[in-house]
Amino acid sequence: MKKQNRSMKSKFTALENHFLNTFFSGIYISAKEFIEVAKQVGLDLTMNSRELLIKELLNKSDEKGSLEQTIALLNALVQQRVEKYNELSRDYPGANIPLAQLAQKANATKSLLSRETQRSPYEL
């Protein structure tokens, strides 16, 4: 029973919750995209809920030592969304304000991701 409770905890809970809530992140990353990121860093994740996939992706990447590469790939996905928001803003000026808000949230998500790679000296 202890082992099961331990596996449910994650040191990336804040980041996981951020990705799961599009209101805060400004983007939606699909389960398929999380699986593709996992494959690029040598992890084999099977289709599951987005919540479990992001948790597995971050924790297994951390265990394997490929967290920085995973964060870089997630940042690239976020950047693609920001570029798409900017493109849509140019094509549809009437939607400029909501798209700018989404882009701002997505950029904040990139900042959150980059902070994840900066280790606290107390965690070493």
Key descriptive features of the protein:
124 residues, mainly alpha
What does this structure look like?
Helix content is 73%, strand content 0%. It is built from seven helices and no strands. The protein has helices at residues 2-8, 13-20, 22-25, 31-40, 50-64, 67-91, 96-117. Residues 1-6 have low confidence and may be disordered. The chain starts with a helix and ends in a 7-residue tail after the last helix. The radius of gyration is 16 Å and the shape is elongated. The relative contact order is 0.15. Helix 2 packs antiparallel against helix 5, helix 4 (31-40) runs parallel beside helix 5 and helix 5 (50-64) packs across helix 6 (67-91). By secondary structure, it is mostly helical. The protein has one domain (12-117).
Our count of domains comes out at 1
Structural class: mainly alpha
Q: Let me know the average pLDDT.
A: 87
Approximate helicity band: over 70%
Order of helices and strands: HHHHHHH
Shape from CA axes? elongated
User: What would you report as the Rg, rounded to the nearest angstrom?
Assistant: 16 Å
Count the beta strands.
Answer: 0
Individual helix count = 7
Unreliable parts:
1-6
Content of β-strand: under 5%
Distance between the termini: 28 Å
The major β-sheet equals:
none
